[in-house]
Predict the structure.
Amino acid sequence: MPTIVIRLALALLASGLLLAAPMGAQTTAPGEQSPAMQRSGGKSPQSPGNAAQDTGLKESTANALRSLAAQLAEKQQERAEELAKRLGKDDLRMAELDTEIQDLRWQFAGLMTQIDVQQFEAPETAQMDLLSELVEALRPVVGALKDVTDGARRQHELKHTIEEGEERLATSIGARTRLDRTVTALRQLEADPATTVAIEQAIIERNKHWTPTIVRLEHHLLVARENLQQLQDAEGSWLTSLQEKGDDISKGALSIVISIAVFLAVLFGLRALFRIIRGKRRQQTFHGRLADIVLGALTLVVAVAATLVVPYSREDYVLLTLGIIIIIGACWVLAKSAPGYVEQIRLLLNIGSVREGERILVDGLPYRVEALRFYSKLRNPELTGGTLRVPIGQLIGERSRAAAPDEPWFPCKQGDIVSIEGMVGRVALQTPEIVTFIERNDALRTYPTAAFLGFNPRNLSAGFEVCATFGIDYAHQADSVDKIPELLRDAIWNYYANDVDAAEVLKVHVELSEAGASSLNYRVQVEFTGKAAPRYDTLNRMVSQALVTACTKHGFGIPFPQLQVHGAK
């Protein structure tokens, strides 16, 4: 998809440039006169330049055709001469001439017909070599890097050449000097045939080896020094050189800024356009989600294609090549990460293991999946700051389930009275990270939310029950089942009525639970509404107070445990 869009954009730009360029040569049917010949009375103009202008052919194109035709004729003549004198000789030169003639003919015919004649006649010879194409594509980048350091690099190479040449010249001069001294010393010896031969060989060595070597090295040094001087003169001052490099950098920086601006403009512009077309209400259906993903991908592709058009139109082929390389690298990374992206797309389409509106556990806390996006929205309505923005990738491997209508999202709410670890207090704050707890007038206690849940808090604000076990003497056994429970119930109700709002007491239940070893034991249960939760400890103590008061009023004896000792018989 990105390649198709890029090619389409480049083709549109190229077609615009071609429409703005001069038209090609117009052909004339046999027997008809061209407009130029009609203006000249049926005769063709004599000037090649005028002829090219009258027929609509560029002067540069005409010159190229003349050059190619001359080279082609020269190669054909050379081949004919080579063929005439070949007569059994090696055919290597003939093959080279045939290849050159064929290449020149393809160029000449292609320039004349405006088609790729080589691709038309021999498609197998015009197949793309991937490595060659890659090297050719990277050539602008490598050339730009070479241009940046070309002057300094060439000066360094010339300085190194000069230093090496001076060292070799000094060695050669020293060798010739020592050779001359040796010849002088030989001449001072007694003349004999062997000495004469040695002198002659020494002179030959000096004249044929060392003297030409010294001359050649001096010439090379002269040329190298002159080249270095020309480079230094052409480079000018370091400020001028820095200014030239700065101009090149500013041109590339301007292309980058324009490319970024075009990318952002196209990306956000298309997103806004699609948002207007789609409307404010987002479609929650499968087709609506699929359309959002397709439009999002198409927006990104078009934005990238528009970005590449900028360096192409500004003829900044270095930036264009780098952009294409970056896109190829990004596509390669996407291909390697395809399985993970497929699962993310399934989640975005709401057909994965996590779905909108369901319940999911994150760090041990339940959340409702409000929206599945690239940054999904999770919410716990009972927590302060309970809305999370989670990358869609973090939801891979998780699962959600449908929540019951009355299923709680947290054991309590902020401000509720709860009981944990034998302590009763008020929840001051509860967030996804911490829960603050105040016990009566004591200091503030802070618990990690997961640790707070581990204490299995008892929410008293939702209503609670106070229980007690109370025993009376067996002397009242006759009234223990009917009369005494009713008397105790009325006594407890009246006792609470003097200190607690009657609406806060829901139910008082007293019944005989067991006949103990020394007492008749009663089970007392008093139910309260959540409004009475702040006085939980007080209400718990008041049960025992009410029972003792009732026993005193009605004369019920309260036994104590007895120890019976049996003697041995």
Q: What stands out?
A: Residues 417-459 form one domain. The chain is about 55% helix and 15% strand.
